[in-house]
Design a protein that fits this description.
Lysozyme-like, 10-stranded mixed sheet, 19 strands, alpha+beta, single chain, globular, Muramoyl-pentapeptide Carboxypeptidase, domain 1
């Protein structure tokens, strides 16, 4: 995207008093974080728990109690486990029990006590059938994301009461990194003519991906379509917790389900920050495992959270559109157009193997799979995502302005005044510096919005500057580490 600078007022330069500089810490360096995954074999029915659930279970998000023609196959006791934030249930692909004949209910013990039972859907993400990645994969549920739990209980119902073979419950502690609370997206690289400007993206290195977990990437010939998803996890995560959610899903997809990498090519949090998903997705047409049957020549962009239950923030919707428009533009795709894709079939696919389906170039997951994904509230925004993606795809740039280091901010921008509504490279460099100082200005997108103003105010208070929410000459001096006038 080409950012057009707003009209920037020229600030009068007052006389300055030489005072000591205010020092701020640099951002914590990122490093790979190794998750802790505990997989426990489960079988049998606990008599006491079965007696206690003679009445229908209070289940959220799915069937209540036993559905017709379903019988309890496994009901575990309440199990105390090491603290985790991601959990899931999986079993062997060689099972004679079809995935469509299995219902999994889970509840967890959080700080406030045991949650209600929740039906966890069988994943309709996954590698396409007949691929090497699919041959290694297990069948399983979508990951259940918690704010933190130390206990879990699982109930599995099947049409015959038979237990799926190799049944495991996995709990995952994705670990933490000092860099989690300072995830500044990497500045976009220059782009070729007629290709949309790359949005700022938090790289795998920055969110702490342990690259030992993944296998070699598989490339598509092109990117013809973008599938919009949601992770269906908790919406109560913090900015610092977003990276942990990505690491937890990555660990579940690779270590529990046996996929080559995280399913999605990109993930977007509720602050509009974009995370690189499957390795290589920024620069190449990497095949994901986000839409079984339709992974070929597509990419998956997933909203972090559950948008069946709440509306997606505007900044999230906008960021998803930016990714979609940019990535399609790399392959001469039109976000407002239609594409024809051949289904590879698979569990939950609405189109059988070999069927040619005509789809919107930017579409929700429910169009190709029997799923509620990306949630009714986000799905209602598909028209907006598509229209914005079309705009971003048409915004081309042959060059990317050089980033200005912190020490040269005053020299470069000292005569500029920035305020809400300003845009362009000076705003981008301001946002980067505020984020580096752990004052969250949001994505360094060059648009001076509410988050950027709040970060400016916080900086002005900490540096004993006049608190205006507007950046003028004296503020640029303070940001550059030069002597400046204090209030």
């Amino acid at each position: 995207m080409r950012l057009v600078p707003a009209a920037l007022a020229v600030a009068l330069t007052p006389a300055f008093i030489a005072v000591p500089t205010v020092a701020f810490d640099f951002a914590d360096p990122p490093h790979p974080v190794s998750p802790k995954v505990v997989s426990t074999a489960i079988k049998g029915v606990d008599p006491g728990e079965l007696a206690g659930s003679a009445r229908p279970l209070a289940v959220t998000g799915g069937p209540v109690g036993l559905t017709p023609k379903m019988a309890v196959a496994v009901l575990t006791p309440k199990m105390a486990v090491a603290r985790f934030t991601v959990a899931g249930v999986s079993w062997s692909r060689t099972s004679v029990v079809a995935a469509t004949d299995v219902t999994v209910n889970v509840r967890v013990n959080e700080a406030s006590g045991w949650t209600a039972w929740e039906t966890v859907a069988i994943t309709d993400d996954g590698p396409d059938p007949a691929t090497a990645e699919a041959a290694r994969a297990r069948v399983g549920t979508t990951p259940l994301v918690s704010d933190g739990a130390t206990g879990i209980q699982v109930r599995v119902d099947t049409t015959t009461g038979a237990t799926p073979p190799g049944l495991l419950v996995s709990t995952i502690d994705p670990g933490t990194s000092p860099a989690d609370d300072d995830l500044t997206p990497a500045a976009p690289a220059g782009s070729a003519s007629a290709v949309a400007r790359q949005p700022a993206i938090i790289t795998r290195a920055r969110w702490g991906a342990d690259e030992r977990l993944r296998k070699a990437l598989t490339l598509n010939a092109s990117v013809k379509a973008i599938t919009i998803h949601h992770t269906a996890g908790t919406n109560g995560y913090t900015q610092a917790g977003a990276a942990a959610q990505v690491r937890g899903i990555y660990a579940y997809d690779t270590l529990t389900l046996g996929w080559d990498d995280i399913a999605y090519n990109f993930l977007v949090d509720k602050w509009g920050r974009i995370f690189e998903g499957r390795a290589g997705s920024i620069t190449r047409a990497v095949r994901g495992a986000h839409a079984m049957g339709f992974n070929t020549n597509t990419m998956g962009v997933s909203a972090i959270g559950n948008y069946e239950t709440t509306a997606a923030p505007a900044v999230m919707v906008d960021a998803m559109a930016r990714v979609a428009g940019w990535k399609l533009s790399q392959y001469a795709g039109n976000p407002l157009g239609k594409v024809v894709l051949t289904s590879q079939g698979g569990v939950g696919a609405k189109f059988g193997a070999g069927v040619r389906a005509t789809l919107d170039a930017v579409h929700g997951h429910r169009i190709t799979s029997s799923t509620a994904c990306p949630g009714k509230f986000l799905y209602a925004q598909m028209g907006t995502i598509r229209a914005k993606a079309g705009t971003y795809a048409r915004t081309s740039s042959t060059t990317t302005p050089v980033l200005v280091p912190a020490a040269r901010l005053f020299a470069s921008y000292g005569r500029l005044t920035l305020r809400t509504g300003s845009s362009g490279p000076p705003v981008r460099d301001l946002q980067r510096e505020l984020n580096r100082r752990k004052l969250p200005a949001g994505v360094a997108d060059g648009i001076f919005g509410p988050n950027t103003r709040a970060a400016v105010v916080a900086f002005q208070k900490a540096a004993r500057l006049r608190v205006t929410g507007i950046v003028a000459a004296n503020d640029w001096k303070a940001l550059s580490g030069l002597p400046y006038t204090k209030v």
